[in-house]
Design a protein that fits this description.
With 425 residues, the protein is an alpha+beta fold. The chain has twelve helices and 15 strands. The strands form four sheets. It has an eight-stranded mixed β-sheet with strand order 5-6-9-1-10-11-12-13. Strands 4-3-14 form a three-stranded antiparallel β-sheet, with no helix packed on it. Bound molecules: zinc ion. Zinc ion binds next to loops. Keywords: ATP-binding, Ligase, Nucleotide-binding, Protein biosynthesis.
Length: 425
């Protein structure tokens, strides 16, 4: 079995690829972020967004690609209403990244190409007419094309996870609906599934198609070379009745743009989270799977765990999980470090919160003072005497919170204990 993948992701830039319109913000009103460039009006000229070039180069670098000395663009010529200038600007031979690979558990999957291209406009299909929104026209995309090195569904899932993790560490929004093309061949003929939206659908399309082709082979039938479409509602692929031939597009050099030198692009240190998870597991003698879960899509966790000494490592993992379980996402490095000195495993939320806020547990000596204060308070207030009901205890909790900055649980414990001892005496 051979599976290859082409994924398209939108890049995290403020403005579009070839003009100064906002790429993602204020998109509610259709056709509000548009200009002659992204509307494809005659006479308009594209100007390359250098930030998109930089992000793409870094993605290519993270995927072990060769980055050519100069990168350039081509026009992919086709006519469609979402592309009024009659061509899409993309890269092909001038791609920012070539011949890379991505490591998954047992192998390397080749990366044929990482290229920059513009997103066309969005077509909204109504019953008997269509509307076009050009806000999306010119949004910067990266197309990542793998070699057909994936040999089963497990590897495909691993590859997708690994790729998304690397993209996330390059600042890409991984919650976006990633558009992919998938090619799968169990026999000789290659079947391409075009325009699958979202990761869940991608896996489901692959599952269906593998099953379909296996069945054909089992029945002694031919698998036809064709392009298919994934139907979300029935979770199956259907023939889109297009002949699968070599690309019929005309590609011509984009002479409105120049050759761009890549030597001056700032390349960041490559971060491969799964590799770091592996190293942390080895170094600290800890479960790799747990560390992967915490760091693959969380830069903060990776930072915290990478900076934790071995003797505190398992406490740090437990602490991060505790923060999750209490739904606390915005804690400082100092708070994290401070919490490492406690055993948080059995701590309830109230105590946990008061520790984060820097409140130390009450010492035995302080407890004595608090008890004396309580006895005195009850003595001085006749309405409190001899009472153990919630209202009275609530009143006393308020007093202790105010005077000793205790949390409710601690206060309640000490009040109940004091009342009990008083009764015995
Ligand atoms: Zn524009």
């Amino acid at each position: 079995m051979k599976i290859g993948l082409e994924v398209h992701v939108a890049l995290p830039t403020k403005t579009k690829l070839f003009c100064n319109d906002l790429a993602y913000e204020n998109q509610d009103i259709p056709n509000s972020n548009v200009c002659p460039v992204c509307l494809g009006l005659p006479g308009s000229k594209p100007v390359l967004n250098k930030k998109a070039l930089e992000i793409s180069a870094n993605i290519a670098n993270s995927l072990n690609c060769k980055i050519p000395a100069k990168t350039s663009f081509v026009r992919k010529v086709y006519f469609y209403p979402d592309l009024p200038k009659g061509y899409q600007i993309t890269q092909l031979d001038g791609a920012i990244g070539k011949e890379g690979y991505i490591s998954i558990k047992n192998k390397k999957v080749g990366i044929r190409r990482v290229q920059i291209e513009e997103d066309p406009a969005k077509i909204l299909r109504e019953k008997d007419y269509s509307l076009i929104d050009f806000n999306r026209s010119g949004v910067p995309l990266n197309e990542i094309v793998t070699e057909p090195d994936i040999e089963n569904l497990e590897e495909l899932k691993e590859l997708i996870k690994e790729l998304r993790s690397i993209l996330y560490y390059n600042g890409v929004d991984i919650n976006q609906e990633i558009k992919s093309d998938l090619n799968i061949s169990l026999a000789e003929n290659r079947v391409e599934i075009k325009n699958v939206t979202g990761i869940k659908n991608l896996i489901s399309a692959a599952e269906y198609e593998i099953q379909r082709q296996s069945q054909l082979i089992k029945d002694g039938k031919d698998v036809i070379m064709e392009t298919r479409t994934y139907k979300e509602d029935t979770e199956e692929t259907v023939s889109s009745r297009e002949k699968e031939t070599e690309e019929e597009y005309g590609f011509i050099f984009e002479s409105d743009l120049t050759f761009y030198e890549t030597s001056n692009i700032k390349l960041n240190k490559v971060v491969i989270p799964s590799k770091i998870a592996h190293e942390l597991a080895e170094k600290n003698g800890y479960s790799e799977e747990t560390i992967r879960e915490l760091v693959m899509f969380n830069k903060r966790n990776l930072y915290l765990l990478s900076n934790t000494p071995k003797e505190d490592f398992s406490k740090a993992v437990a602490l991060i999980e505790k923060f999750y379980s209490f739904g606390i996402m915005d804690y400082s490095d100092n708070q994290f470090e401070m919490m490492l000195k406690y055993d948080v495993s059995s701590m309830d939320k109230g105590t946990f919160m008061s520790r984060i806020e820097g409140k130390e547990p009450i010492k035995e000596a302080d407890k004595k003072e608090i008890e004396e204060y309580l006895i005195l308070t009850i003595k001085q207030d006749s309405t409190l005497q001899g009472r153990e009901d919630e209202k009275a205890i609530g009143f006393l909790i308020g007093k202790l919170k105010q005077k000793y900055h205790m949390d409710s649980k601690e206060a309640k414990e000490i009040i109940e204990k004091t009342i009990k001892t008083q009764k015995v005496n």
